[in-house]
Amino acid sequence: MSQARRLVLGSSLSIGGSHTSVWRHPRYWSDASINIDYFVSAARKAEEGKLDFIFVGDSLYVNDHTAPHLINRLEPLTLLSVVAGATSRIGLVGTLSTTYHEPFHVARLFGSLDHISRGRAAWNVVTTALPGTAENFGRDSHLEHDQRYRVATEFLDVVKGLWDSWEEGAFLRDKSSGVYFDASKLHTLNYKGEHFSVRGPLSMERTPQGRPIIVQAGSSDAGKDFAARHAEIVFTHQPSIEEAKRFYHDIKERAAKLGRNPNELLVLPGISTIVADSAAQAQQKQDEIDALIDIDEALKELERYLDPAAIARIDLDEQLAPHLDGLLTDGYQAETERIAQLVHKENLTLRGLALRMSTRAGHNPFVGTAEHVADAIQQWFEAEAVDGFIVSSGPIVPEGLHHFVDQVVPILQGRGLYHTDYRAETLRGQLGLPVPPNRYAQATT
Amino acid sequence: MSQARRLVLGSSLSIGGSHTSVWRHPRYWSDASINIDYFVSAARKAEEGKLDFIFVGDSLYVNDHTAPHLINRLEPLTLLSVVAGATSRIGLVGTLSTTYHEPFHVARLFGSLDHISRGRAAWNVVTTALPGTAENFGRDSHLEHDQRYRVATEFLDVVKGLWDSWEEGAFLRDKSSGVYFDASKLHTLNYKGEHFSVRGPLSMERTPQGRPIIVQAGSSDAGKDFAARHAEIVFTHQPSIEEAKRFYHDIKERAAKLGRNPNELLVLPGISTIVADSAAQAQQKQDEIDALIDIDEALKELERYLDPAAIARIDLDEQLAPHLDGLLTDGYQAETERIAQLVHKENLTLRGLALRMSTRAGHNPFVGTAEHVADAIQQWFEAEAVDGFIVSSGPIVPEGLHHFVDQVVPILQGRGLYHTDYRAETLRGQLGLPVPPNRYAQATT
């Protein structure tokens, strides 16, 4: 490795995470998910802390069982465009689905965000887990898991091809000669694949970052292969430093085997932090939040992973293990596998699993004093379990983010672990990720 | 009519219009179409003049024959979201196609813009005229003209239905009871039509305007019927006050026949103004701009209306009339009909038509002193030929808009014809357009 590793910190402004009732906390901004003032003020707070980027999730299907914080939300690209105008350096990561979108629109949306933000756009590529989504897009059925990744691979090929439509410097705008663009630097994609057929070119010059950064969160086997091939940032969930290490080395090896420089793929688990003046006070805050859990809400949330009809048939306090076969859904494959292991290992009842999934109780090393949280971050980073973290703005939104920026970041900066100012104008520059060459550009000799 | 008519003025920030070489003018901001600073500063200038809205066009297909100002542009919704954050009262009209988009995405994008802007969003519904667009979306062929309008009608039914998913006040967010929303105010669309099948609900609460305003620019017979049924603003091009009057009364009658209040459909032709200290100076500026025209560029622009292969076969100075059959394309039907009439009436050659289309020479009553331009606006408005205008930010971008705001608007205000401040917080309020009732809401008794 020629360069020192850099700790990367993003902030997830997506509301909620797994705790379905935390919005009831007195200090929780309960309409945040639909309130642009929340996103602008949180992004500015994150920029105050020199965080590398903000992250915004998405979904394309809700019903009356959807968790409160997910049922009412702004669309990510419009949201991030407002934030782009209200900030100047922080990166902007937004989520769009390859299963329910058109590559031409997606290339334009993220290309436009990259132009608008002067080089701060990143696309979190998702394949969409919830089967009901198909019904919002006139599809007979939701594609099965691995097929979604095959479509996604082609989708990315097309989008990257469209982003290469115009070489650097193609637009001359020479008023005296009347030459607006250099036609030799315009390339028509003419893509014809199994799932997509797209002519091009994109109606947009090369973006400030060459192309927006690719982020990916799949952690199934197909998801990890996809990430190793395409992703520059991997967003993941890892319950312990040991599991994080295994994941980190697995994904970096997969990338290396594909001929990629593993340093150009950053592994960032999502974490939720609770910061207080003492360990006891932090735990008290955690207990206060856990006490808000409503078992009905927790069960609804489980329907992402377990078949709703089956849930309804099982007694709350019955052992779950004997029922598991055929109960787990096709989406979120890595998570459902983890659930199966947990149920067997700890002999969980349905109630036990629901509460466990809602609180992630006993699994959070990032609860404690600011020193403790900074120590944990340093430990995971130096153990090469992570390249950094995506820190939730919660659990109490947006107080979690404010405490992190005001109390934890200065400690990391004081230790020389984290930058005290942005290093570059673009997110690629900031993260040390290279600008991908345009596929058509002649190497200069 | 119970209320006095209000003069409405919007500004089109779309670059170019019909003049393909005006970017060569020394004062033209030649990278404006891809530069967010242009859109933000122009929107702020328009807001300084209390203009009702800004308008942004779009297209989904370019090739190396596309006019310079259209080949490299920002995506409208991301662009308008930045502008939403940088302004506080002006309306935001953006263009999206019903032929190449999904209703669920479009409902979210404009719904999100309406939330983000606190009630200033409007959707310019287009059916997409350029047949090549099909190739960017994996379609075998572009739908023919009237079929596009049938699809658009269904598309709008779906989008309006999705916008009604949640009644006013559905989100209670009651922390003490734990009730986040009132389930009786949630409605699942379950739409199944000929072209679309969309379950719903939308993952977004009712927007500040009830729903975004619908704008439409079709002027063919199918287009006018569609506008009469759905549009709240009709964007049109009318070469003379007489033609404008005929169009105005035609469209208002069509709306009345469908049981609509014709005052709730505003007819706004697009105009390009040139303002100078004297009529002679204004004409001189017009001549300066026209002198920039390049015949090759002008011919390329004609390819929107005439088959390119046919254009290549015809001598530039030959009479065009005998060749017209089979030469006109299927898109922009009203415009191609106008071209056919013009060619026959004035015995135009190919060169003559190209220059005529590029300059619209001799057809612009809005060139002259500020008083003259204000007089023309007043005359068209008082003659009930229009409800107002959509004023181009050009022809010299953005100087045209600045001159209009600084010199023409104050005269209209001085005459009591135009407001001196915004009347309302939302664009609907500003334009006097009613908030559409939610289809599921019980009338209060």
Number-wise, the strands of chain A total 14
Largest interface: A-B, 71 and 72 residues
- Indicate how many domains the architecture of chain A comprises: 2
Distinct helical segment count of chain A: 14
What is the CATH fold-level name of the largest domain in chain A?
TIM Barrel
Which second-level CATH architecture of the largest domain in chain A applies?
Alpha-Beta Barrel
InterPro entries (chains A, B): Diverse_substr_monoxygenases, Luciferase-like_dom, Luciferase-like_sf, NTA_MOA
Family (chains A, B): Belongs to the NtaA/SnaA/DszA monooxygenase family.
Domain Luciferase-like (chains A, B): 29-383
Keywords (chains A, B): Flavoprotein, FMN, Monooxygenase, Oxidoreductase
Characterise the protein shown here.
The structure is a homodimer of 445-residue chains. Chain A has 445 residues and is of the alpha/beta class. Chain A has 2 domains: 8-288 and 364-431, TIM Barrel (Alpha-Beta Barrel), CATH 3.20.20.30; 291-359, no CATH class. In chain A, 38% of the residues lie in helices and 13% in strands. Chain A contains 14 helices and 14 strands. Chain A has helices at 36-48, 76-86, 103-116, 145-163, 221-230, 241-257, 279-290, 295-302, 308-313, 333-346, 350-359, 370-382, 399-414, 427-431, and strands spanning 8-12, 53-56, 91-97, 121-126, 171-174, 179-181, 191-192, 197-198, 213-216, 233-236, 266-271, 274-275, 367-368, 388-392. The longest helix of chain A has 19 residues, at 145-163. Chain A is globular and about 80 Å long. Chain A starts with 7 loop residues before the first strand and ends in a 14-residue tail after the last helix. At the A-B interface, helix 2, helix 3 and strand 8 of A face helix 2, helix 3 and strand 8 of B.
